[in-house]
């Protein structure tokens, strides 16, 4: 008999009232409205949340976006899922069948959709466009200007999700013009200092802010920042924090996390 291994991220999350999981907490009034989020066999607690918290299962998050993309492109879109913290978090990357952005013979940027979700509240559900730069394997997050699908969308009807995804895909070509402008815009050393100091730890910034590297194009500066975010950070949480900070600096829109409450 063949056993089919179910990926960790497809295993169910189990919601149990805190007082039922740990009866000793039943005596504390504040804990009676709390819920424990367990893995399938209840050997790991992901988090303790309010009973109003809307849990989005990882498989629902991934499958919803996969279906919306399939409807958009009229074909199945390939994806890969990375599971973290024992299934407490996931990052899924969908390879979109649209032409890459080329800014030069060797500067090719493949457009992807990145989905993240968590049970431990390290981040809320979000799907947004991203670009994978082949020349140096940088993962580059695209700013909120180009749209996102967030927790409030995943709990709504499928048609609204499809509409949001299609809008994001339609806007993706705008990046070609924007990045082209950046490749022709030069930034002086003083401008870079004013823009970046205080936004990132000095150990990441010092190599980027060496005076003899300026003037530098905005495109090159953007890629230096995405490089240390991708290559030099030690944790996924840190990388996401840096990605969103870079997105805010370059695309001008601050990330507004949706609550699942």
Strand % is: 15-25%
Q: How many strands, which pairing sense, and closed or not: the largest β-sheet?
A: 7 strands, antiparallel
What is the count of β-strands? Answer: 12
Parts with pLDDT < 50 across at least 5 consecutive residues: 142-146
Structure classification? alpha+beta
What best-fitting shape do the alpha-carbon axes yield?
Answer: globular
Number of domains: 3
Task: Give the helix tally.
Answer: 9
- What series of H and E elements makes up the topology? EHEEHEEEEEEEHHHEHHEHH
User: Rg, please?
Assistant: 21 Å
Mean pLDDT: 82
Write the layout of secondary structure elements.
Layout: E1 14-17, H1 18-21, E2 34-38, E3 45-50, H2 58-73, E4 79-84, E5 89-95, E6 101-104, E7 107-118, E8 126-133, E9 138-141, E10 148-150, H3 151-154, H4 158-171, H5 174-183, E11 186-187, H6 189-196, H7 202-208, E12 216-217, H8 218-231, H9 236-251
Antiparallel strand pairs: 1-2, 2-3, 4-5, 5-7, 6-7, 7-8, 8-9, 8-10, 11-12
Task: Give a quick set of tags describing it.
alpha+beta, 3-stranded antiparallel beta sheet, 7-stranded antiparallel beta sheet, 261 residues, 3 domains
Overview of this protein structure:
This protein is α+β, with helices and mostly antiparallel strands. The protein folds into three domains: 43 residues, no CATH class; 117 residues, no CATH class; 73 residues, no CATH class. It contains nine helices and twelve strands. The strands form three sheets. Strands 4, 5, 6, 7, 8, 9 and 10 form a seven-stranded antiparallel beta sheet that branches. A three-stranded antiparallel beta sheet has the order 1-2-3. A two-stranded antiparallel sheet has the order 11-12. Strand 2 and strand 3 form a beta hairpin. Helix 2 packs across helix 4 and helix 8 packs antiparallel against helix 9. The longest helix has 16 residues. About 2% of the residues have low confidence.
